[in-house]
Amino acid sequence: MRTFKTEPSTIVFNLIGYVLLTLLALFCITPFWLMVSGSFSDEMDIVSRGFQIIPDNFSWEAYKSVFQTPEQIYRAYGVTVGLTVVGSLLGLFLTSMAGFVLSRQEFKYRNSFSFFIYFTTLFSGGLIPWYILMVNQLHLKDSYLALLLPPLLSAWNIILMKNFMKSIPDSIVESAKIDGAGEFYIYWKLILPLSTPGLATIGLFLALSYWNDWFLANIFITSPEKYPLQFLLYKILASAAVLQTNAANYVSANVTPPTETLKMAVAVVATGPIVLLYPFVQRYFVKGLTIGAVKG
Amino acid sequence: MHTFLFELRRNKVLFFMLLPTLVFFLIFSYFPMVGIYYAFTQYSFEGGLFGSKFVGMKNFEFLYKSGVLWNLTKNTVLYNLAFIILGNILQLISAIFLAQIPGKLFKKTTQSLIFLPYFISWVLVGAFVYNLFNIDTGVINSLLAQLHLPAYDFYMSTAPWKYIIVGFNLWKGIGYGMIIYLAAIMSISEEYYEAAKIDGANIFTQTRHITLPLLMPTFVMLILFSLGGILKGQFDLFYQIIGNNGLLFEATDIIDTYVFRSLAVNFNIGMGTAAGLYQSLFGFVLILTVNYIIKKTREDYALF
């Protein structure tokens, strides 16, 4: 509620706010801007003068080069999209089910089980014992399961989900039970539809962790055809591996392959979808996060 | 046991719905705890877990005596303190202004833009850092060249990285934290402000005497929660920005990067597990302490 007459102090306050937030927003998008601008720059400009805020000479060359031999990128896209879709849906199903059970008053051992799950955030065996288990006992080296399983369930997501579902009135469950509905039916038909903001939030968390993963691929994946997108990007940024397939074309044409701009173009291609997705889920995200976290 | 079985039968469906989750945590979180034993061995690939030579506390002793443990702890704790304190202050301030500003479109646009870095991978952050700071094509050095100033090789000197690392961590997290604070501000009753206005308080005094004090509990809670994890590092951040550039380790090595290198570069399983166990145990004690403090002061906020 604002007052009708705006006081001078309010104007000053808002002015500070506008300036501060504008600066922050600029600070946040500048690297993205440099990346996009870099991807549309001419390679020679980058080599001779470095990255510029505005490209001196606009060029599609880097994107042409990316899609000249696109198999590797398409394959990485396929791996990442597949993992993201399967992982997010499966993770969402298991997380919401666990959250539902743990939020139910009738479930007598809910606190013990909650602690069983929560304890894993307090104490762990550490990276190395976990790695050795994954490789030596579970034999997940170079397997898609090594990318799919670890992010699937997280204690935080389950706690967030549990808290979110706790805010749904008990009377809904009770009246459904009187009507003879089973637990799974109540979960699937009543609680899930009421949990959309919570599901959207956890779903986005899961999608982000799958889409942005490079670490699991780094330690477990050895065959290049199984590389997910971000790990391929990492490889390209670190060693320009993908360029070697293209380089031959440039040697014969006697021009420099667009190494720097191509890196940026691949970065744009690898980042695009998740950035385009987020304005649509942001609304739910804010809602789900605040309900789950404030009560946390 | 009897009551447990009775419960199990009564709430069979609920138990089955929880089962996959329990199995998951048993396998991926509890089984690795057995592997803590590596910390007390001189690991050999043929021997495996129990065939390796038992060396007692030797690994810890070495880490301690070589000064590695101290340097790692110092770096991890100081970086995290900077992240936590600066991050929360920045998030709090931006949330206060964002909540107040009248322009709807401006509000939405800035919020979305500030939130954007949260969504991208650390690989990309590493690329950004490289774009900005590398000596040949980096933006900073291009600007220096245009001003006819000598180039600065960031990757050769430890001094600037503290600021770069802290800066990019703040950059990535501000949108997320801002939303938590925004939600807390939204839950403040409008009546406080109405009453203050009648008393002639302007927006600055309102912020100082209403918004800030009412946000203090959230602020303190968030700080305390993060203090429990102060020995856990942002592996992705450090690894993507610094990588295996040994020149910078003195200022940038944290426990997580050390453990990773023990596994992937030096194959020093015993030492790496020891450092990991030290991190886990220390963190565990810290969380218990923090939780104890919270319980004493504001019971309803305690973690468990």
UniProtKB/TrEMBL annotation, chain A:
InterPro entries from the UniProt entry: MetI-like, MetI-like_sf
UniProt topology in membrane: Multi-pass membrane protein
Superkingdom field: Bacteria
GO CC annotation: plasma membrane
This protein's UniProt keywords: Cell membrane, Membrane, Transmembrane, Transmembrane helix, Transport
Span of domain ABC transmembrane type-1: 77-281
Gene Ontology BP annotations: transmembrane transport
Localisation: Cell membrane
A Pfam family this chain is assigned to: BPD_transp_1
Transmembrane segments: 12-34, 76-101, 113-132, 144-165, 186-211, 264-281
Coiled coil, from the record: none
Signal peptide (UniProt feature, chain positions): none
Gene3D superfamilies: MetI-like (1.10.3720.10)
Family statement drawn from the similarity comment of this UniProt entry: Belongs to the binding-protein-dependent transport system permease family.
Name by which UniProt lists this protein: Sugar ABC transporter permease
Automatic annotation (TrEMBL), chain B:
Compartmental location: Cell membrane
PANTHER family registered for this protein in UniProt: BLL4140 PROTEIN
Domain ABC transmembrane type-1 as annotated: residue spans: 73-290
Biological process, per Gene Ontology: transmembrane transport
Keywords: Cell membrane, Membrane, Transmembrane, Transmembrane helix, Transport
Main location: membrane
Membrane topology (UniProt): Multi-pass membrane protein
Listed name of the protein: Sugar ABC transporter permease
InterPro entries, per the entry: MetI-like, MetI-like_sf, UgpAE/MalFG_permease
S-adenosyl-L-methionine in keyword set: no
GO cellular-component term (any): plasma membrane
Top-rank lineage group of the source organism: Bacteria
Stored Pfam families: BPD_transp_1
Family in the record: Belongs to the binding-protein-dependent transport system permease family.
Presence of the UniProt keyword Protein biosynthesis in the record: no
Transmembrane segments: 12-40, 77-101, 113-133, 163-189, 210-231, 276-294
